[in-house]
Write a structure and sequence with these properties.
The complex is a heterodimer.
Chain A lengths: L2 E2 L2 H8 L6 E4 L9 H11 L5 E5 L8 H7 L3 E6 L5 H6 L8 E3 L2 H10 L6 E6 L1 E2 L5 E2 L14 H6 L2 E6 L19 E4 L6 H4 L10 H17 L8 E3 L3 H16 L4 E8 L1 H8 L3 E9 L2 H9 L3 E3 L2 H5 L13 E4 L3 E3 L4 E2 L15 H7 L2 E5 L3 E2 L2 E2 L1 E2 L14 E4 L2 E4 L4 H8 L5 E2 L1 H12 L7 E10 L5 E8 L3
Parallel strand pairs in A: 1-10, 2-3, 2-6, 3-4, 4-5, 5-25, 6-9, 9-10, 11-12, 11-15, 12-13, 13-14, 15-18, 16-21, 18-22, 23-24
Antiparallel strand pairs in A: 7-8, 16-17, 19-20, 22-23, 25-26
Helix pairs in contact in A: 8-9
Chain B lengths: L6 E6 L3 H6 L7 E5 L9 H14 L6 E5 L8 H8 L6 E4 L5 H17 L7 E6 L2 H5 L1 H5 L5 E6 L1 H7 L12 H14 L2 E4 L8 H14 L3 E4 L5 H8 L3 H20 L5 E2 L2 E2 L2 H20 L1
Helix pairs in contact in B: 2-3, 9-10, 11-12
Classes of the chains: A alpha/beta, B alpha/beta.
Chain lengths: ~475, ~290
């Protein structure tokens, strides 16, 4: 029997000591109770100087701030960070910079031992007494457990934390008992409200819709819109609108895609269920319909982040993508993208799969409005480089489409169409003509974050913004 | 060559994002609204916003129109003071009932243009939305050199004739036709009423097709989502353009050969057909110019 009754006991059994590294997955997103409760307990037990490696940090994980201040958390390595924790870290409260990786990069770093995990605390919406777990049963069902696979495989000790113990053997199984040391049963692992959204919505913003319209045309004119299309889009309103416009084109031209991938939403599920894609590769579910589908549809395949995007695995799925649609908080005239900080240099995101899919896909499209409120999105130099410009093929905005000069083939194809093809420099000029040139943000010498590319190379060091 | 007005998009004058982005939706015209879309306490905000937008934002080849408040509202003078700028193409004046209404606006406008050294006169579109206005369509259309179109306001009109709007729209058929005929007689554009259910794109398409058949040049719109559909309906199809080109070629050939009667595909081509063909080519040429 691996079932342990209290968090304290399981932490003791895991052998967790000062200076070790603990990890978490973020499938419970902003509804996660596990990370905070583990840190609070660890602090109570007097363990200090930990490195925490959650795949992502959400606003709910605000307790981290206290544990940075009281010395429990010494270092953070993650793929994404939103909410207050990022804001406070941007004020310089940590002695060591946060290491930001891509989803594939994290899997690679764990497998290679660069990110050595001593104890993994894995939230499990369903588990049995031997530690077989899945994400699809139970009240905290989150669907895919894609980000947790590497932790389970490579951590020295693996603890499954669940609020739903089912009879042995649990079926189906995502992570099996051969990887799991202990099972801890708790009352609740998360708040279903914060785990998945009820529905994800296509944007109604006319600017977003205009961008989506252009993007679908870019895909069509690129020649990649044909049978066998492998496609990824995000869960943002504009990305979903692209999927919607693409759907119309696929129906019109009688095209059946091969797989859709990514964070999965009801839109991609519907497209698969209507026969527009043969299958879905799912590293993370974003809404209730995606969770239902992964439970019901055999073609809806859960994949690990290593399968998704680890360059050092024997092969990975992002390398098979034809088209990926990505966002940007800033993009510079060399097409480098920032999805880590806001325009003031404050941490508010991270690469996630951005860097991975951009590098892997045949056609990488960044969609962004030319302005957000009064700020131009195209800048001279991004405040943080999370995806190098060499991986971006084209930027689509509501006021024009800029093709990366490195992709002459695409430029020639698009130039022949009626699409408003321009240069990224001209887009920047146009934005500045309307909104003016923003004042430069000042930075101190203190490094608050290191950005790793998917292969582990440090591609940027983010300094602390000096906010007025 | 006058520009096309197949799609005229209403944008609330107090919405900075939409005012800033008015140029990106590919409508032929944008109509920034100071009237119904802006509540009384927001009028100042909207005037200030539009005043600066007109001067600072380049709307390129998109016609910039502002709908001011009506003559009887006490707001019209302040509206005009704010928005009469060299960058403004056209003013849409609501609740026009008679030619005299337009003449009054014309006079005020002439004065403000003089004070501001505006050389190129600002054009006018009359918004006709009452029974009286519809009955006076021709005299309104012919009331001023500035007049370039009548825009039909179907919602207010239906209330005025004491009935309700329907999807089929038979209650506005007469008014639509009367406005088209009046505009045509005066040589100006006739623009159709908006279709108010923004989520019913099939209904919009039917409504726009009907307006086109009745002779309207274009349609006013209340959402960017409506632009593509309406644009497509009012634009000549490739077959129509090819047919028109063949008609014109046949005419040219006949003139060279000195033939009096001309036929194409076994049908006689007379003056109205030639005129229709030339109009189609003209619209197609304008569209090319836009692209």
């Amino acid at each position: 029997m691996k079932v342990i009754n209290t968090l304290e006991e399981v932490i003791k059994k895991s052998g967790l000591k000062d200076g070790m590294t603990i990890s978490f997955h973020h499938h419970l997103r902003n509804g996660d109770f596990v990370l905070n409760s583990v840190l609070n307990k660890v602090a109570e037990m007097g363990i200090k100087d930990l490195t925490i490696a959650p795949s992502s940090v959400f606003p709910v994980h605000i307790d981290i701030i206290d544990h940075i201040k009281n010395g429990v958390v010494k270092k953070i390595e993650c793929n994404y960070m939103s909410g207050k924790v990022g804001e406070v870290i941007s004020e310089g409260i940590m002695d060591q910079p946060v290491v930001f990786r891509s989803h594939g990069g994290r899997a690679r770093a764990i497998a290679s031992g660069e990110l050595k995990i001593d104890v993994a605390f894995l939230a499990a919406p369903a588990a049995d007494s031997e530690g077989n777990i899945n994400g699809i049963n139970g009240k905290a069902a989150c669907g895919s457990l894609g980000y947790a696979f590497s932790d389970a495989r490579y951590a020295d000790k693996v603890i499954a934390i669940t609020d739903n113990i089912e009879e042995y053997p649990l079926t189906p199984v995502s992570i099996d008992q051969t990887y799991v040391d202990y099972v801890l049963e708790v009352e609740e692992i998360g708040d279903p409200e914060g785990i998945v959204s009820g529905t994800t919505q296509i944007t109604q913003d006319p600017v977003g819709l205009k961008i989506a319209e252009y993007t679908a045309e870019v895909i069509e004119e690129s020649g990649l819109l044909k049978d066998g299309l492998n496609f990824q889009t995000g869960a943002g309103g504009t990305s979903l609108a692209v999927a919607d416009k693409l759907k119309d084109k696929m129906i019109e031209k009688n095209i059946t895609g091969n797989f859709a991938m990514g964070g999965i939403t009801s839109y991609l599920v519907n497209m698969m269920e209507e026969g527009l894609f043969k299958s879905i590769l799912d590293v993370q579910c974003f809404d209730l319909d995606a969770v239902r589908s992964i439970r019901e549809n055999i073609e809806h395949q859960e994949i690990s982040s290593s399968w998704y995007a680890n360059t050092e695995s024997k092969s990975c799925a992002v390398d098979m993508l034809d088209v990926v649609i990505l966002g940007a908080t800033e993009i510079d005239t060399d097409f480098n993208v920032n999805v880590l900080t806001n325009s003031n240099g404050v941490i508010m995101g991270g690469s996630g799969g951005h860097n991975d899919t951009a590098a892997g896909a045949n056609l990488t499209i960044v969609v962004a409005p030319l302005f957000r409120t009064r700020l131009p999105i195209v800048v001279d130099k991004v405040l943080a480089k999370t995806t190098p410009g060499e991986h971006i093929d084209v930027l689509v905005t509501e006021r024009g489409i800029a093709v990366n000069p490195a992709n002459q083939e695409l430029y020639k194809k698009l130039k022949k169409t009626n699409l408003p093809i321009t240069t990224i420099e001209k887009l920047k000029e146009e934005a500045e003509k309307v909104a003016g040139k923003p004042q430069k943000v000042e930075f101190s010498d203190n490094i608050i974050a290191l950005v790793e590319a998917r292969d582990g190379e440090i591609i940027d060091k983010v300094r602390q913004p000096l906010l007025k | 060559m006058e520009k096309l007005r197949q799609t005229m998009l209403f944008i609330p004058g107090n919405n900075p994002g939409m005012v800033q982005n008015g140029v990106v939706f590919d409508s032929d015209s944008v109509i920034f609204d100071l009237e119904d879309a802006v509540s009384l306490k927001e009028k100042d905000t909207a005037r200030i916003l539009l005043k600066h937008a007109l001067v600072n934002i380049d709307y390129g080849s998109v016609e910039v129109v502002v709908r001011i408040n009506a003559l009887d509202s006490d707001l019209l003078n302040e509206d005009l003071e704010a928005i009469v700028k060299p960058q403004l193409d056209t003013i849409l004046v609501p609740k026009i009932n008679t030619a005299d209404d337009i003449k009054q606006v014309d006079e005020i406008l002439t004065k403000i243009e003089k004070e501001n050294d505006i050389e190129s006169p600002i054009k006018l579109i009359a918004l006709v939305e009452t029974a009286l206005g519809v009955e006076n369509a021709f005299s309104i259309a012919a009331s001023s050199e500035r007049m370039t179109a009548i825009l039909f306001g179907g919602e207010d009109f239906t209330a005025d004739i004491r009935t309700e709007r329907t999807d089929r729209g038979e209650e506005i058929d007469y008014a639509r036709s009367r406005i088209v005929v009046g505009c045509r007689a005066a040589g100006i554009d006739a623009i159709d009423t908006p279709y108010s259910d923004i989520n019913n794109l099939d209904g919009l398409a039917k409504d726009a097709k009907r307006a086109k058949r009745l002779g309207f040049e274009g349609k006013s719109l209340i959402s960017p989502k409506q632009i593509n559909i309406v644009n497509k309906i009012f634009s000549p199809t490739e077959e129509e353009v090819n047919w028109a080109k063949r008609v014109v070629r046949a005419i040219e050939r006949a003139e060279k050969e000195g033939k009096g009667v001309i036929s194409l595909d076994g049908k006689m081509i007379d003056a109205p057909i030639v005129n229709r063909a030339k109009r189609i080519i003209n619209i197609a040429a304008k569209k090319e110019g836009v692209l």
